[in-house]
Amino acid sequence: MKTAIYVIAGILVLAALAIQFGALRGKRPTDLGVNNGRLKPPSLTPNSVSSQASFYPDHPQRTYAEIAPLPMRGKSGTASIEGLTAVLSAMPGISIVEQRPDYVRAEAETRWMKFTDDLEFWFDPARKVIELRSASRLGRRDFGVNRERIEAIRAAYQART
Questions:
Q1: Please, which residues have CB within 8 angstroms of residue 83's CB and are 6 or more apart in sequence?
Q2: Contact (CB, 8 A) for 42 and 135
Q3: Measured in whole angstroms, how far is the alpha carbon of residue 116 from the centre of its chain?
Q4: Quick one: DSSP state of residue 105?
Q5: 149-155 CB contacts, 8 Å cutoff, 24+ apart
Q6: What does the pLDDT read at residue 67?
Q7: Which of 61, 101, 128, 158 has the greatest count of CB atoms below 10 A from its CB?
Q8: What is the rounded distance in angstroms from the CA atom of residue 16 to the CA atom of residue 128?
Q9: How many CB atoms lie within 10 A of CB 56?
Q10: DSSP assignment string, 49-80
Q11: 3-class SS at 154?
């Protein structure tokens, strides 16, 4: 009986260590970025949001993924991206991975389980908005986490003067 308890305790400790060292982070996608004015399409399962979901009318998750882009703030797209970058940098669990004058890519990591989501923001000069996409790397469902995070980012971004 004692042996079984020690084995179970050992397994739990190893699992906790594996999680803390990134076992649930998933692999960083290699196909992110802007391609012909488009971000990557929404995920095939309900675990992403995209302001460009309507560009894919036959996509199985178009309705679930649809979310409004961020408005331009300030006098230029560059100023808008800089303001957004400041907001992202101040949010716990979010780290900037790539930044250009018209594009920001970030990763959001949950505190305990270390799940990682990929966030992309691109200033579309034709529409004068910041197109966005946020998607979970692992799992089939996100239970609304990506939408909640984007709406928190939106609120902080719009509150900036």
A1: 73, 74, 157, 160
A2: yes
A3: 8
A4: E
A5: 149/108, 149/117, 149/119, 150/49, 150/67, 150/119, 152/91, 153/70, 153/84, 153/87, 153/88, 153/91, 154/68, 154/70
A6: 98
A7: 61
A8: 45
A9: 15
A10: EETTGGG-TT-TTHHHHB-PPEEP-SSSHHHH
A11: helix
Radius of gyration (C-alpha) of the chain in whole angstroms: 18
Question: In terms of DSSP bridges, do strands 103-109 and 94-100 run parallel, antiparallel, or are they unpaired?
Answer: antiparallel
Return the pLDDT at 143.
86
Q: Are 159 and 67 in contact (CB under 8 A)?
A: no
The pair of structure tokens assigned to 112 is: 């305990």
Quick: pLDDT tens for 81-91.
999 999 999 99
Give the whole-angstrom CA distance, residue 25 versus residue 118: 11
Which two structure tokens, joined as six digits, stand for 121?
């923001």
DSSP state of 31: S
- Residues of the chain short of pLDDT 70, as ranges, are 4, 6-25, 112-113, 161
Q: Per the structure block, which two tokens stand in for 69?
A: 């882009």
Residue 128: left (phi > 0), alpha (psi -120 to 50), or beta? left
Sign (positive or negative) of CA dihedral 101, 107, 119, 34: positive
C-alpha span between 64 and 144 (Å, rounded): 10
* Cβ 149 vs Cβ 134: under 8 Å: yes
